[in-house]
Amino acid sequence: MSYNVITQEGVRTFENIDDAGDYAQAMSLRTGEPVKVFNAETGLVAFTVRPTTKDTK
Predict the structure, then answer these.
(1) Fewer beta carbons under 10 A from the terminal one: N or C of the chain?
(2) How far apart are CA 9 and CA 50, in angstroms?
(3) Torsion over CA: 37, 8, 29, 26 (sign)
(4) pLDDT at residue 18 tops 60
């Protein structure tokens, strides 16, 4: 199964969900915005990565 990560820089496709998650996390931390990882076959959202904050109220 492959996964797509769509950002303002374009679409990146990964064969491994861990690699897709790592890339999504790096992009989310860089932009400060949530990043969604999509199942490439169905187009459905597999999961969303949100940037972490130091303040965890």
Answers:
(1) C
(2) 18
(3) positive
(4) yes
- What's the mean pLDDT in 47-57? 76
Token readout for 15 is: 């064969």
Query: How many whole angstroms separate alpha carbon 8 and alpha carbon 13?
Result: 14
Q: Which helix (H) or strand (E) holds 21?
A: helix 17-31
- Site of tokens 């597999």: 46
* Whether the predicted pLDDT of 48 surpasses 90: yes
Q: In angstroms, how far apart are the furthest CA atoms of the chain?
A: 38
Token pair of 42 as six digits: 């169905």
On average, the pLDDT of the chain sits at: 91
| Phi, psi at 48, each rounded to 5° | -120, 135
